Structure formats: structure tokens, C-alpha cells
From TrEMBL:
InterPro entries: Cyt_P450, Cyt_P450_B, Cyt_P450_CS, Cyt_P450_sf. Keywords: Heme, Iron, Metal-binding, Monooxygenase, Oxidoreductase. The keyword Iron applies. Transmembrane segments: none annotated. Belongs to the cytochrome P450 family. It comes from Streptomyces nigrescens. It comes from the Bacteria. This is Cytochrome P450. Coiled coil: none annotated.
Amino acid sequence: PGSAPLASESGLVVPVGRGDGCPFDPPAGVERVRREQPVARVTLWDGSSCWMVTRHQDVRAVLGDPRFSADATRPGFPFLTAGGREIVANNPTFLRMDDPEHARLRRMLTADFMVKKVEAMRPEVQRIADELLDRMTDGRSAADLVAEFALPLPSLVICLLLGVPYEDHEFFQQRSGILLSLRSRPEDIRTAQQELHAYLVRLAGSKRERPDDAIVSRLVARGELDDDEIASMGRLLLVAGHETTANMTALSTLALLRNPGQMARLRNDPSLIKGAVEELLRYLTIVHNGLPRIATEDVTLGGVTIRAGEGVLCTLNSANRDDEVFPGGDALDVGRDARRHVAFGFGVHQCLGQPLARVELQIALETLLRRLPDLRLDVAFEEIRFRHDMGVYGVYALPVAW
Ligand code: HEM
């Protein structure tokens, strides 16, 4: 399935997922809207309406402006699905709170995700990447890259950081899959969320008995949060910390395999890796459905007035293809300076885990290209199943051979 139709008799309908064209591109209609009607009134799945912002400058303006709230309990907040509404109604995390509450909670984690702290983890991440590839290639010449490399790498890392036992990965990966699926029924979302929450409440309890020096244990020791609040934070980190990087790793590998000239450039000059990761983040924009906000005051943007109480969706994938900022942006160019991309969002909610995601992606892709010089797809491109129905885009499996 591709995206929902963009144009309808009632006006513009928000596309969910990608278009039916190139699976790396935003839906074609979104590009047209950016050119013709950059701040557009659109209809959501439930018939309500909100604004869709598609230009790079407008997306940054909304996400950087405190008059736009991320508090999903405000009436009129735009949700992309009924399940999305359920997640927030049930148990919000600081992703959907405003300052000062958001800042108070986020501040408890900033030291753990600082560039310096995360850079020091490089040897550990490299060791994990090498061990996974040793196992994947041992006596074999083909495997599913998602199951054997792209997913376990960030899962193992976030488990280490949080102090979550990796043996439980099937349990939390299955639940986070339900939370991220745009197709999940609200009741299934509620159950998955409750199970994950109960698991993390138990984990916090066990760290009180047997402390270690990982994040959950340190939050317990700090004594400022109750176990419920720690569990909500842990849930946000656990879900955000493995699904995103896993999908970026697999989708980036596929994008490079489909652009052999770019892949060869990167292989021949590994010093390009940092820039290439930024370009892949821009080009693929895996958090591909609009980031939701709600205006708390009237704001004029792109020639229209957004009234207090009206919702806004900031479409990162369109902003990241905006020609004004990224000329020729529909092409993947590993030598491009893509640092202004908004794949990690912008403003106070800009991705907390981005230094970690960068280190993981740089190591994963560099190691893969270096160790498997004749890496190739093991199925026809047309057979690959893309995650059109998930809040984080990617592929379900990536059969490769070497
Ligand atoms: C927030 C993308 C990896 C933790 C965000 C947001 C985006 C994003 C777009 C902003 C959401 C909004 O403003 O509504 C990504 C991408 C990743 C990635 C593309 C990988 C390629 C990670 C990792 C972690 C993480 C590895 C953690 C370990 C978070 C957290 C927030 C967040 C905690 C909420 C920040 C806040 O509300 O202040 N991420 N992320 N992310 N991300 Fe990431």
C-alpha cells in the first residue's frame, strides 16, 4: 500500500506513508503542495482539518516557535491515526509535553546523550557491529540484513545504555512494532503500551534492589521521579532508540545498493562517511509523517494566519527535499553538505539521541561496506516490502548476499 490520496473533493487529505512512485521519495503530491500552497489546509483521517507545512523554512519556523505546542492533551491536537491518539491519551512522554515540564524531564538525560559521552562509546559499538557481522557471515553467503545486523546493533546498544536485558528483545520489539504501526487498533496499542510500561516499572523496581550504572538505575537513584515516570522515559528511549537507527541502517544500505556510483564513492573514500550519513538522513527522512503541533496563539506563516487552537503537521520529508536549501535534492549525493536537514526535527524537541544515532550509523555503514565489498541484493528490488504502514519508514527485511 502507498499513501492515502492527496487530493479529494473536500480539499487536501493528509498523505500517510509514501507515494506509489520511487520508495525513497515523499509522496508526489506533497512536492506539488510545497510549490503551490506551502501552508495548506488539509483533512485528517477523522474528518477534522489542520495545516500542513512543507517548506524547509516554515517547518523550522513552526518547530522553533514556542507559540506552537507539542502538548497532545490540548483539544484540537492533530493525530495521524486513532492509535496515535491512544498512545498519548494513555501515558504521555516528554516528546509530547511543553516546557518547563518537557525541559525538566529531558535535562535528566542530556548528559547521557552528549556528543562527548557518545563518542566514547565508539569502540563498544564497533565491537558489537563486528561481532554481528562475524556471526552473519560465518559459513554463509546470504542473510536478512535487518534481522541479523540493522536491528540487533541499535537494540543491543540501547539495552546497554538503559540497563534493559537484551534477552527480552523479542518482547519489547514486538510491542514497539505495534506502537509504531499506523494500522494498529487502539485497543492493541493500549495493551502493548501497558505491557511495555509494566515491564519497565518492574525493571525500575529491580534496579532499586540491585543497582547498576545504566540509565534506568541512575534515574531510580536520583530519587526525583517515581517508577511510573521512569517507565515512561524508559519506554520512549527504548522504542525511539532502536527502531529508528535500525530502519535507517537498512534503508541506507538499500539506497546505496540502488545508487552504485554513490556507494563506490563512499567505499573508495571512507572519510566521506560522516557527510554521507547526513545526506542519507536527509534523502530518506524515515520519520516521514508530519510532526504534529498546535498553535496556542494566532501566528502568520507563509501568508496565512494559523489561529490559536489549530493543528499543524510539519512534513520533514518535504522540507528535506526543498530545492531552496538542497538544490537537486531529489538525488542522493554523498558529497553534499546536508547538515541543515531536519530529519531529527528542530527546536526544543530535536532528537535527543542524534549523537548516538550518528555514531551507530557511521559505524554500521562503514563496517558493512569495508567488510563486504561485493554486497548485493539477494532478491529483485520489486520484491522488497517497504514500511509504508509504519510511523518509522524502512524495509521489513533486506535479503542480501556477498
Ligand atoms: C525526538 C528522529 C534516533 C531518542 C526525535 C524527533 C525526530 C527524531 C524527528 C522529533 C520529534 C518531534 O519533535 O515531535 C530520529 C531519527 C533517528 C533517531 C531519524 C535515527 C536515525 C534516536 C535514538 C534515540 C532517540 C537513537 C535514543 C536513544 C529521541 C527522544 C526524542 C526524539 C528521547 C524526544 C526529544 C524531545 O521531545 O525533547 N527523534 N531519532 N532518537 N528522539 Fe530521535
